[in-house]
Amino acid sequence: MDRWLTIVGVGETGPQGLSEAVKTALADASLIVAATRFHAALGAMLGTSDHVIGFPSPLADLYAKLEEHKGQKIIIMATGDPLWFGIGASLINRFGADACLVIPHVSGLQMAAARMGWPIASCKIITIHGRAIDQILPSCQRRARLLVIAENGQSAPQVAQLLTEQGYGDADITALAHLGGDDEASFHAKAADWQHQVPDFHILAISCPDKPAHHAGFALTDGDIENDGKLTKADSRASAVAKLRPFAGAVMWDVGAGSGAVAIEFLLLAPQSRGFAIDKNINQIDMARRNAKKFGVSNLQHIHAESPLGLNDLPVPDAVFIGGGLSSLTIDTCIAALRGDGVLVAHAVTLESEALLLAAWQKYGGKLARLSVHHADPVGGFHGWRPLMPVTQWHFIKSAMAQRISDGKG
């Protein structure tokens, strides 16, 4: 099938700024989907706007409309580069690359970086369009430069308030509105001093101060994580997360999640990943939700359920951490579900749980270790070593042999 779906990038100048080739394609199209602010210009250019429609809400309704006209010449007018935080990726996933022709325009992100004098390769690009603004927090690191795609005119004051509440009130914020258009404008202030009214269509450029960020780094401080005393402490947590091998796009299960600390750290280190925190205690689930919000982790789903029942129908995991609710059935279920070459790490602090890990190690293999951490604390007028409870850690990488064992064929 020919490429019947053309996805055209457009800037603030609208249809008038498009190439002659694109204008010719617009004249031949049977259906054009564009933002309503461009409809009048399209009507004037084409002599009619009867075949021009706006983007529906919810956007998912667009697919049914496109299916109705499948095979006809359709043009989608998207903002900037359709494949850079745009609709292009969703359309290609739905209809296939062979059906889609993408014609990019200069992105607003490129123009924002140019206006700021920032090399775009040195910037962290984030979108909060249709997403929680808390997710900018992991990127608020020392001297970081952020380019943030806004949702609407309220995004700037909301981001400024969030940064101020999280201790980044001295971050510099510049709102760059209508980039490349006749109404282009910029607004600047410290986060704590933000009072500007900003147009809906804008990009935020944020320059973070030269100060430590408690949302970034490895092994979050125990005191920053809400917990009820049962917490995978920083040293043991660092060991577990390192062995779980975070990577972009991973699927991670945190079984017996408690505070959710291990899943949160994993996801902070693994962009575009998905996490699932499972716990039978609703109070723990609520606490894990609060911790995820605090650290800007929006891609962690919380599941109130017993294990292993709560693991049914979850996506195949690349990494599994078992920090609570250990049982032989839970271990076997996790290993059976684990992707080939996936990683499982389990911790135990009681003798009963340790016996389960010993049995699993003998059955499946892997590595069994004892983690013992001591901290120097005052002892009268002197100092001594005060131990934390030792942690037994089982580290397992799934192999073909382990798969046969979990299938009952070993």
Measured on Cα atoms, how large is the radius of gyration?
26 Å
SS content category: alpha/beta
Strand content: 15-25%
Indicate the mean pLDDT: 92
Number of strands: 19
Largest sheet properties: 7 strands, mixed
CATH class type of the largest domain:
Alpha Beta
Model regions low in confidence, pLDDT < 50 over at least 5 residues: none
The 3D shape can be described as globular
Q: What helical percentage do the residues reach?
A: 25-40%
CATH level-four homologous superfamily name of the largest domain: Vaccinia Virus protein VP39
CATH overall fold name of the largest domain: Rossmann fold
Whole-number total of structural domains: 3
Contiguous helical run count: 12
CATH architecture of the largest domain: 3-Layer(aba) Sandwich
The strand line-up of the biggest sheet is 13-12-11-14-15-19-16
Gap between N and C termini, in Å?
Answer: 49 Å
